[in-house]
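Journal club side-thread
Mid-discussion, someone asked how the predicted structure for our own chain would compare to the paper's figures. Pasting it here so we can look after the session.
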Amino acid sequence: MFSSTNRFGTIFQSKGIDIHDPVHGTWWPTPAHQQKAYEYNLKWKEWIKENEFANKEQVLKKGRELMKEYGFKVNF
């Protein structure tokens, strides 16, 4: 759910979010992942750019919103 690309992983970790914690993960079937990953990451990129100084709770809130938008069960 929290992209582990170098660009995003570093940002999320700097906010105190363990991107490798299973509670933040979800299964994304391969076809959907291949089709939607770019779009999903673009939404994070734009949000991070506009919310550079967001705190951990704000990032988690955005993560929950994106998960719901993409039809994932939120576990945190």
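Post-session note: The first helix runs from residue 6 to 14.
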